[in-house]
């Protein structure tokens, strides 16, 4: 029987809601506890806990949750505050914004991935890692420095070649002038 007036505290670490195999759910779900889907789900999911999509599940949803595990088929965008795991039997078609992303061998992911800037910045500073844009900028600066160095080397080589050519021409011209004067 249902108790009225008493609230039980929900544990977001335990599965509180199960959409069983053979069940079709159309509509949005908002849950404070974790959710496991073994059937079919069509509609957005906002979950404070974890969302697990079972191996036989088919889900067409945008999902926002703490952690998400996909062992079945999922189509939609995923946003997690934690980890997204696509298992070896899982398929995900959609864009993701997560703190951590794991795809096991055999798992399929088609879409774009990004990390939220505050999480990514903290992780980069902690791990002393630079992002792709910074890396690209550093490489461009290195190439520009190398080209600048090469141009200055070429200019100094050209000047020294020009000076030595001029000196040798001048000396040879002077010697030939002296030979001509001595012959006369």
Automatic annotation (TrEMBL):
Residues 130-184 are annotated as: Disordered. InterPro entries: BacA/B. Residues 138-178 have a biased composition (Basic and acidic residues). Belongs to the bactofilin family. This is Cytoskeletal protein CcmA (Bactofilin family).
